[in-house]
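User: I'm putting together a teaching handout on how sequence relates to shape, and I'd like one worked example. Could you take cytochrome-c oxidase from Methylobacterium variabile, show the sequence you're using, and then write out its predicted structure as tokens right after it?

Assistant: Happy to. First the sequence, then the structure tokens directly below it.
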Amino acid sequence: MFGRLMPETASVQAVLTDRIFLGLTIASALILALVVGLILVFAIRFRRGSRVDRHPLPDIVSREFEIGWTAATIFLFVFVFWWAASAQIGAYSAPPNAIEIHVVAKQWMWKAQASNGAREINELHVPVNAPVKLIMTSQDVIHSFFVPAFRLKRDVLPDQQTEAWFQATKTGTFHLLCTEYCGTDHARMLGRVIVMEPEAYARWLSAQPEGDDLAHQGERLFSERGCAGCHAPGSRVHAPSLAGIWERPVPLEGDRFATADAGYIRDSILQPGRDVVAGYAPVMPSYAGLLDDGEIQAITAYIRALGSEPGVVRELGTPEVRSNVPGDVRARSPAMVPGAPVLDVPAPPEPGSRP
């Protein structure tokens, strides 16, 4: 009977969420039954006109009862908080081997792109029993990514990146909804998540139109939009190198530090004067309005693909453990190779002009 009242359970997170929901429901029902039962007993036992001995209890009994009841309530609250919070916090930490998919929400559709370049609109193909990490942002207003069968719900915000992950446990097609009112056609902002067997997913992936993956798209944008003209080691402009900074601490002005993650890269592109790297002048122009969310995601993927080992330049698609020996990498970004010629790339266009 309980299963009929709940949506289909199709992910690892759904099992944990249902377990918490069921536990809280049972605990609430027991507490409600206890309170209602005591009210009925007292209302009947001590009703007006009854001949009940109303001698008060000794003070010590009353005090011990109150202390015990308060301690039990606090223990129950702390346990429930720990139980629910531990499951929810785990939803923010994707496994390191998770498949990465970038999602851009806009009125009124979901645009998804896998790291290998496969693109979809209002559909998301994933393999079963494999963790999937979603990196999401919005091009206009606040949306909310919701898959009932996965018990997955995460707000998608403009000018910010939010992350979530799931692991589907059964194949099939599941509803994807927007649960944040986002305008006239909010109710039509629908999609579906298609969970496939690994072999079927591999065939589907290979059948998609060929194109550059996100990292190579970002590499191209890095040069086309003028980034390489400043961040190349031999550039005439004194700007920090981006090789090997991913998820490493970056020293900032004012004796502060920031972690070079997706949020930091995005803020540095759109608000370069906000967190200036120590020892560098705040001369970088803002790219707000010049780069859309998909392009920012691509540049971020490129910087991430360069690795997190300082001074090491990696070929895109190679493991990060590869050493940086001059001449052993055939396809590098000129902006990241020490001593490479500086690209004569024009400065970013003025806001309002076409790039």
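A couple of points you could highlight for students: The radius of gyration is 28 Å. The first strand starts at residue 99 and ends at 106.
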